Automatic annotation (TrEMBL):
Residues 160-276 form the Chorismate mutase domain. GO terms for biological process: chorismate metabolic process; L-phenylalanine biosynthetic process; tyrosine biosynthetic process. It catalyses: chorismate = prephenate. It is found in: Cytoplasm. SUPFAM superfamilies: Chorismate mutase II. GO terms for cellular component: cytoplasm. It holds the Pfam family CM_2. The keyword Cytoplasm applies. This is Chorismate mutase. It comes from the Eukaryota.
Length: 300
């Protein structure tokens, strides 16, 4: 079992351990997407000013931003964001009510944060794609009940449920993407000399070349497709696959499998790599020339 508990883990920079955590996060991400796909798009919850009720509370952002702020305020008090793998989406959060845990210093100090990109991609691309089925089902049920007017079909009014799950999806993608920092630190420590020259020359392409492992990516996408296809299935009460009237396995599924694979291929993996490169670009900041020379001759 690959632990993500930094208080007990023995070798936090083992690439096997880190990849084990990334693999487990695939399940968390797929399951949270399946949950979000139960509800309609509900575009209102992403628009600033769409809920006058929030303005009345003195809050200026969207419904989702309000959820993030409220939930993260509570989690910050429980010191969630002192953990090296947790990044909030909102700012100006309260201090923890408990004294901080003494986490081992695994990462080089840095301010790399991909959450703004995650939030905007999630709203613009992921939600409309994964909610298509719920939206279509809603449209069909409205038509069956004689209700017409397409503009209503994408809104089921479940704003609280949808935003609660949005927060879960966002946090799991954020954790996954920022885990790229651990991958980078591990690769850097394995062979600092290979990276130092490119960091000093700010050569992003060369750094990306060094951290990219096409075979790992290929296997990941293959595994992801199998996982998503399996979790998307509906099972009959006896555990058999659900079949339609003709006895064929019902493959309509709870989630768009290709959508999940594409999400990883075109967004999650590239963004993880961007975080890895950004982290590396900052890896020598504050070090003297002498420190850098010494580093060149160390390798784990
Ligand atoms: O496992 C690694 O080595 C990573 O850097 C992580 C990751 C990924 O995002 O899954 C990113 C880049 C590599 O090409 C392979 C996989």
């Amino acid at each position: 079992m690959q632990s993500q508990n930094f208080m007990v883990v023995e070798d936090p920079l083992s690439l096997d351990r880190i990849r084990g955590v990334l693999t487990r996060l695939e399940d968390t991400i797929i399951f949270s997407l399946i949950e979000r796909a139960q509800f309609a798009h509900n575009a209102r919850i992403y628009q600033r000013g769409a809920f006058p009720e929030l303005n009345a509370l003195g809050f200026q952002g969207s419904w989702l931003e309000w959820f993030l702020k409220e939930i993260e305020t509570f989690h910050a008090k429980a010191r969630r964001y002192t953990s090296p793998d947790e990044y909030p989406f909102s700012s100006d959060l309260p201090d923890p009510v408990l004294a901080p845990l003494k986490f081992p210093e695994i990462l080089y100090p840095n301010s790399v944060n991909a959450n703004p990109s995650i939030l905007s991609f999630y709203i613009r691309t992921i939600v409309p794609r994964i909610t298509r089925r719920a939206t279509m089902a809603l449209a069909a049920s409205k038509r069956a009940n004689g209700i017409t007017g397409d503009e209503e079909y994408e809104d089921d009014g479940n704003y609280g449920s949808a935003a609660t799950i949005d927060v879960e999806v966002l946090q799991s993608i954020s954790k996954r993407v920022h885990y790229g920092k651990f991958v980078s630190e591990s690769k850097f420590q394995d062979n600092p000399a290979a990276f130092i020259h490119h960091i000093q020359n700010r050569n992003r392409a060369a750094l990306e070349g060094l951290i990219t492992k096409p075979e790992v990516e290929r296997k990941l996408l293959q595994r992801l497709e199998k996982k998503a296809a399996t979790y998307a299935q509906d099972f009959a009460p006896d555990g058999e696959f659900k079949r339609d009237a003709n006895g064929n396995v019902d493959v309509t599924g709870k989630i768009d499998v290709d959508g999940v694979v594409e999400l990883y291929e075109s967004f999650i993996i590239p963004l993880t790599k961007e975080v890895e490169v950004d982290y590396l670009l900052n890896r020598l900041s504050g070090l003297s020339q002498e420190d850098i020379e010494k580093l060149k001759h160390t390798a784990t």
